[in-house]
Amino acid sequence: MEAPNRNRSPQTDSSSPSALTDEREPPRGPLLQRRQQLTEALARSPYDLILYLERAVVHSDLAYPDLAAGDAYRALLLADEVRDESFEYHDQAKESLRGYRTAPCPEVLNHGSLVEDLDQIVDGQGVEAAGECNILANIASVRCFQILSLSLLLCGCLKSALEFCERGLKMVPHNRELHEIKDYIEQVARRRLRKGPDEPIEIHMLPDRGVVRREVYPWNTHEPDRFCADSLSFLNSKLAKIAPKCEVKVSSLPVLLDGASNTDQYDIIPTCNQLGLFAKQDIGPGEPVLEEYSLLTANNRHKESTCDACGTELPPLQSDSKAVSCPECHDTIFCDEFCFAKAQELYHPAVCEKDVDSIAKDPDPSVIDESLYLLLLARLLAMSTHQDIHPLEVPEIKYIWGDFVSVALNDVDGSITDEPPPEWTLPFSFKYNVETPLHILEKMDIDIYATLDRHDLWVFNTAYAKFRGTASARKNPRDGRPDVAAVHPFWCLANHDCNPNVTWEWGGRMLLWARETRVVGNQPGGIRAGEEILNHYCDVNLPVQQRREWAQGSLGGWCMCQRCREEAAAAVATAAGEPREEVNGNGAS
Ligand SMILES: C[S@@+](CC[C@H](N)C(=O)[O-])C[C@H]1O[C@@H](n2cnc3c(N)ncnc32)[C@H](O)[C@@H]1O
Description:
This protein is of the alpha+beta class and 589 residues long. The protein has helices at 28-44, 49-61, 65-83, 90-97, 118-122, 127-130, 132-155, 158-171, 176-193, 229-242, 337-346, 368-387, 395-398, 407-410, 430-443, 452-455, 457-470, 544-555, 562-575, and strands spanning 210-212, 246-254, 271-279, 288-292, 297-299, 324-325, 333-334, 426-428, 472-475, 482-486, 495-496, 502-506, 510-514, 534-535. It comes from Thermothelomyces thermophilus (strain ATCC 42464 / BCRC 31852 / DSM 1799).
């Protein structure tokens, strides 16, 4: 069996054996233009499921299977709207389909054996009795199941892929393309689960977390040039209030590796430019460096004991407590009037009495991270809705680091392998990236179709990329589970070093202050004007190997700071029985 190719041309060659296979590599430029046209058409006609399906195919051809799945899922929801007149967008979705016919069928539905399966789709009733819109909706649903199952397979979400494939096969039990996709899912599942050809594969065993491209999408016009003079001057004007002795500047950082290497002893290692925080005046030992307040917080406990706005632990409710509950939705508690006023100003009215509070709360330990990132996304959506700005324009995330990979590196040929390509680094699942964010928006009474520009899947993915590079989480002291997370956009500009010159604590505010003494050699603390603020993302009291393993998650790679390199090189020299060399302050031996 041939592996299907993500890069299929928009002009589907339905005469090929399965029409899932087309080895041509379509050029990106025209596809990007076509994507733009379809996005504009969707802005004019937001309930048109055919346009969504067409854009799904283009996304698939551009090697964004996750975005293809997102579009196919929206088309599937619209097909449900067409069939059920009690649904909220029934009239609009049906009206949008009136411009299309079953013969000739829209090109995007004329795929493989789909039209041959029309008899199963109309259930033997004949086209007229079934109603043309309903038939189109049914054919479209099968097409959605095909795109969803193949795309999710390509992202590595095998369980969701198989579930959608099975749903399609329920509608058209003999559909050739769905059977092919099911075979592919089972082949990949067998390889990943190391199962023999005759061993059964149960759906609950299948992995459902994949990875997708982590990039500044070519059509993303919201991403600033973080290095340009305007951005730096904007950031520094804000920073002046919360860290008056600091400034944001370009910092040269070691390029992070995936794991241990033999470069620890090298005098020169590859570096890259990013942003960092620097002292612009001397800062004494123990002196405060930064105090930052952020409402971009999340709490995954159902009955939380933290302030809804800033995430601080609430004091026990006594008569002298300063805690305030929202007069409209009494369950939402703020630590004081200040937090309540800030919440009212920046996000709360968008979720007040909207029943979004129970979503993703008290998660299974295996999905704690996902739940916290999802709840950060929910907060971001509430902030952008209430402030009436695009989510990626919300100041709290606009300028932060997203650990993006270049589009060129991410672009792959798309044949099916056991795992998605290694350059794809953004964790992805159907539930947390596609389904639940839309569910949250619906609970907020937002029309997910009419607001596509703000709530497209690539917008959620971009926000997730930023959260994953910068959010901090706090563990609950009772059970050690992370239950509160936050993004502090200025604190997160400080880079990591295993010999930090600051330390931090997050209560209601993120506080950063200069260390009294440095970890290495008990040197006195304090930061000179011009020196970089060196934060710590891991426990710096651990030995080098453990430190590097811990920091790998939060830093995004193997720590190559001076201290790690010196300690690792010394350990290697000791193991080899070489005499120890003294190292000077800069680590050059
Ligand atoms: C929270 S951000 C820090 C600010 C970031 N440099 C920026 O430009 O906004 C974390 C990212 O900074 C980079 N980084 C921080 N400390 C580093 C270090 N010691 N070595 C290499 N990269 C570092 C890593 O790419 C990491 O994923």
